[in-house]
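Each record in this resource describes a single protein on a pair of labelled lines. The shape at a given residue is found from the number at the same position. The record below illustrates this layout:

***
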Amino acid sequence: MKKAFTLMELLIALAIMAIMAAIAVGVYRGYVKKAARSSLQTDTRNCITCVAAELARVALTGGNPDFSNCTNRISRYTESCSVSPSYSPDVEVYQCTCTGKGIISDITCTLTTESSSFSGTGCE
């Protein structure tokens, strides 16, 4: 008598492997999305650090601030970053807003020169 797998046993094994693969892909996509969001947050932090450095330079040497250098150093998951003033009664506050692309295209992160916590859509 030959020993072999039946068609039913092969189909059951294939179904189990398909379920395990589906779970693994879902977990992997979660890790990738979390890493991409972290990269977007890092780009936003780098942007606001650059803005603060440019404001310090202007305070010491005078002139007008040039934030163009602050918005062009972005990672592969960041679509764009922008700098805009946000005036408060006593202090001029600037904010950096970076938007994600690809797997995180629905996420936007914003930081201000007066705050260390993120605001925006899905960035928290």
Notes: Residues 7-61 form the longest helix (55 residues). The first strand starts at residue 78 and ends at 87. Strands lie at 78-87, 92-100, 108-112. The mean pLDDT is 89.
